[in-house]
Amino acid sequence: MRSRRGRTWPTLSPLLRLLILTQLAFNIGFFAVLPFLAEHLGAAIGMAGWLVGLVLGLRTFSQQGLFVVGGALTDRYGVRPVVLTGCVLRIAGFAWLGYAQQTWSVIGAVLLIGFAAALFSPAVESEVARQAVLWEEAGRGPRTRVLALLTVAGQAGAFLGPLLGALLLSVDFRTVCLAGSGVFVLVLAGHLWLLPQHIPGRERVRVRGGVGDMLRNRRFLAVCCAYGAYLLAYNQLYLALPDEVERAAGSQAPLAWLFALSSLLVVTTQLPVTHWAAGRLDQRRSMAAGLVLISAGFAVVALARPAAWTGVAGLMPAAAFVVLLTLGQMLVAPAARARVPDLTPDGRLGLYTGALSSVSGLIVLAGSAATGSLLDAGLPSWAPWLALAAIPLLATVLLPGRVRAPDPSAG
């Protein structure tokens, strides 16, 4: 098993290796800055808490909500110009944020930073998905192995980025921002040199008409809803989990260790989990199994809540939740990305890849508001967690069965 997994990276094309390493670099630069932004806005600039939340929400919307725009532009103009433009905007956004001191200036910088990702991320992810299909068709293995490498690279960047940021924060926040900008300067230079002007097989299409067909593509929208259920569950790391940790430990200090546990699990076990799943489960069953594991994570906390354990024992259900959620993520995320090419008409992979993030992001936005209300509703302590456990289970019903490659003229 190990030797077969070990052959995955060497068999990748130079383009695939570049794109996967790009994901690593993107996340190092981004997460060197993001974890320290809220503290900077509140303590250094003096923003009120609601305004800090608004700024962070605007950044998320300008990124996740506009992925569909970046995907459509990738289909129209190609991967290279969209990635390079996104890098230039990210460089400018981080530099601007480092010097921004007024509210309007901070908002402008974070919107630019978010929109930059809305350009380059769908471009990279859609091309990795397309190349993964070609890799699979060449008989080298299931496409999920390639997409798992993309997940590992992203998670490794999310792990290393805050370490870089914390190191530079001893100077000041501006230095952190300029370092993040510098990472993207290196990415830009590398892509100017290495990223092909035209990628064979990637035809450019007009933006017009693609969105309407996509909105009539029920199978694709069903996958988006199931993926959105996973992301809503994942978002509870930042919403429901802190409340549970505070209850059990009397502070949120253990959160950092639980987040590190999640990152470490992905980096060390994503590839073995994907290899195991590829030999036993198709993409639909992999997503379903992942959603069931996520549901079990919520159920563990719901069952333990009436006992009201505290201290180390009280943190065990939270740790089990993180482990089960992360294992579920490792099954759902690569499988969902692997399904998108089979549900996409020719020439629209960028649009559909971006829409997967945008549609599921809207689900998370609406679901997070509902979850927050649920947590504040004064219900028995186990009830919100049990309700959250039901959502991934219900999402498994939405998953479409195996499909053939779509007719380009069909929605």
TrEMBL record:
Gene3D superfamilies: MFS general substrate transporter like domains
InterPro entries per record: MFS, MFS_dom, MFS_trans_sf, MFS_Transporters
Membrane topology: Multi-pass membrane protein
Subcellular location: Cell membrane
Main location: membrane
Domain Major facilitator superfamily (MFS) profile: 1-404
Transmembrane stretches, start-end: 12-34, 40-61, 82-100, 106-125, 146-167, 173-196, 217-235, 255-276, 288-308, 314-337, 349-370, 382-399
Any matching Pfam family: MFS_1
Keywords: Cell membrane, Membrane, Transmembrane, Transmembrane helix, Transport
PANTHER family tied to this protein: MULTIDRUG RESISTANCE PROTEIN MDTH, RESISTANCE PROTEIN MDTM, PUTATIVE-RELATED-RELATED
Protein's recorded name: MDR family MFS transporter
The organism of origin for this protein: Streptomyces longisporoflavus
